[in-house]
Design a protein that fits this description.
With 362 residues, the protein is mainly α. Helices cover 57% and strands 12% of the residues. It folds into three domains: 23-84; 94-217 and 274-310, no CATH class; 219-271, no CATH class. Helix 5 packs parallel to helix 9.
Length: 362
Amino acid sequence: MSDSENSGADKGGVWEGEATPTDAEASSGGLKQRFSSAWQKMEGPAQKVEARYLSALRYCMLAGATLLLVGATIYLAIGLFKQIGSSEITPEPVTIAVSDIAPSPSEEQPAAEAAADGEYKGPDKDLRARTLAVYRASFAKFERKGEAAKDEAVIDAVWPEERYAAFEQLPASDIVDSLGTPFEGAADLREHSITLAGKSVAEAGMSKALQSYRDAKKVRVCRDVTRQRKREVSYWNSNSTSCYMWYTYPYGCSDTRTVSEPYTDTVCEMRFPDDLESPAEAMGTAVENYLMVAARKIDTAGYDAEEKRSEILASKVEGRAQISDAGKLFLAFLGVMFLYLLVVMERHHRALNRLIKEPPSD
């Protein structure tokens, strides 16, 4: 190339035949350079913010996963604990105390039951002897002056047929004595009831009732009664021929007849009050109370056992629900841990990309 050509190339800055950039292209390139420069300036702080955000997200995920795992463990432990134990509950044995069969001081005593008719032979020899022995030792001292209850009267008052047979209906094995030993049968229960009846005399209610009977005074009691009396009345007997001129009109004779008519009379007598029980009747009432208290306590024990069984079954159902909730919380824990792994992988992936893009330093 000649010097003139070089000089022309130097002056113009463009070779002949070379394309020159337009103003628009020059302006676009400048914008790109400015945008690239601004992005490079922002990239550093943005990466720091992103790193801090991912770090905070990881910590939150770890905290949430820990809470989920702890909650699942607690729910599982509680649910499994509620499954422990049997739901079969037997009623607790009951105990009959002396105070259960003795009347309260303010309690009005019912009339004693009468002995039933039929082929009932009464209690056996041993029970008869035991009943009479307890009566003579504890109740006979409350008889009124000049009163002495016969043995058969005592047995009939204490052991009518219905009361004697009712002991067969009690579950003897569900009743225990003061030492916790269960009874073997109805005979043991009858013996126990007689023993407690004798001890009940020392209770305030029974003692007061027996003393009221013994110390009672006769009072004048009057009542109206309806009776019948007879008297003679006159009437005309058309068939009578016992008078003169009976055959003339108005035929017949005057006659008399006896009629019966009611009248009210007031009867008064001296007698003891009717609302007091004799010692034999009081002993029979104590035995009757034994029956009622035993039946009531057995029913109550059965109701309590059923209620407890219902509570246990409800607890087991609630425990199974908590085990199910524990499974759901554990699945949620696995889901959070999966997201945590994604965040960690993304963090490491970005770190690897930066290492790849940065040239190694000499």
